[in-house]
Amino acid sequence: MRGKNDFNVELSPDFKFEFEGERGRVFMIITIRNIDYNIDGIIFDKDGTLLDTQFFWPELLEARMKGLALKGIEELVLKSCRRTLGQLPDGGIDPDGPLALGSRAEEVIVTATVLYQNGYHWDKARLMVEEIYNRVEKELDIDRISRAFPGVKRLLEDLKGAGLKLAVATTDTTERAEKMLDSAGLLEQIDIVVGRDMVEQGKPKPEMIELISRKLNIPYEKLVMVGDTLSDMEMAEAAGCIGIGVLTGSGRLDVLKGIAAEVVSDVTNLRGLLRQSAL
């Protein structure tokens, strides 16, 4: 893995090339292990890649549990809900658990199932969980929980200025993802946001990338997927595009290096892998 300070190639907001002929084309090239690839677009995961959401998922979970407590759900049952949804003993969130990877609808089913297992009528449990989740969603302070990692906004501006198409593929809902990206000042640079609700199968299945490929009219082999989880890299592999792992969020080198084409310290290190070539 290359370190954060190993790169000296910088992208600037304006790329200008002079051509002798009437026509010319500028290619963006990404270099992975001494091999050059022409690319037309980059797909980013949201949480842990573009946005520092270390407090987002625990806060969302606790807000939901408080809502259920107000409905009379016992603390012992709530502890079971937290554990089943993916809360770790230290209070963190399992990056491979239902809360991190599941759709909102799947999270409702998981929570309602725990209530059912503890003696609650299935239909009543499901409707109650749905009601609480809806209310919490409306009360979330999006501005407070939406923070881009340092340098991300400038990076996206530079990549967009270089002519690349940019997308986000996230397990979050599309609506909330767009609100969070907008609050963090990033949405303007993103061409398309694909949430879990826009596809039948989420990560690690390739459907999100397939949808983005169709919408942006870019073949898989000219797309790069950047994310901090194993499911991000498995999705990239399944779709046949380049996978770049980042060590922010829940990213771990020992997990990512076996499947990612390259692993970098954070998303801004993409600068060192990219350059432009004019033909």
UniProtKB/TrEMBL annotation:
Transmembrane segments: none annotated. PANTHER family: PHOSPHOGLYCOLATE PHOSPHATASE (PTHR43434). The keyword Hydrolase applies. InterPro entries: HAD-like_hydrolase_sf, HAD-like_sf, HAD-SF_hydro_IA, HAD_sf, PGP-like_dom2. Keywords: Hydrolase. GO terms for biological process: DNA repair. It holds the Pfam family Hydrolase. GO terms for molecular function: phosphoglycolate phosphatase activity. It comes from Koleobacter methoxysyntrophicus. It is an enzyme of class 3 (hydrolase). Its EC number is 3.1.3.-. One of its GO terms (cellular component) is cytosol. Signal peptide: none annotated. The gene is mupP. The keyword Hydrolase applies. This is N-acetylmuramic acid 6-phosphate phosphatase.
